[in-house]
Amino acid sequence: MTTDRDIEKNYSLQDFIVELRRLADTLEAGEDYEIEIEDETVLIPGHAVFSIEHEREDGQQEIEFQISWKDEADEDEEDEEQDEQEDDEEEEDEEEEVQA
Q1: Range of weakest confidence among 35-44, 74-83, 90-99
Q2: Do 51 and 68 contact (CB within 8 A), yes or no?
Q3: Are 62 and 54 in contact (CB under 8 A)?
Q4: Where is this region: Disordered (predicted)?
């Protein structure tokens, strides 16, 4: 399990344009996108969810281009938990049938 973190990295306009273009080119090619933020390489997988968020508060506005995904390790744990729950439900159903 990785540790939680929340880091914001600011870019100059030119660097932001370059990074957006690289992101778009990588996604169009069907490849995973990698970016380094604060000495950590972050890999954005193909199953990520992309959204744009608009916020307005106290006279300020903000647009965030967001990319969200679950780590594969977390997904594997959730899949295992769901499989266990389904197995338990099947066993309960079988026990009820035997008792009936």
Answers
A1: 74-83
A2: yes
A3: yes
A4: 55-100
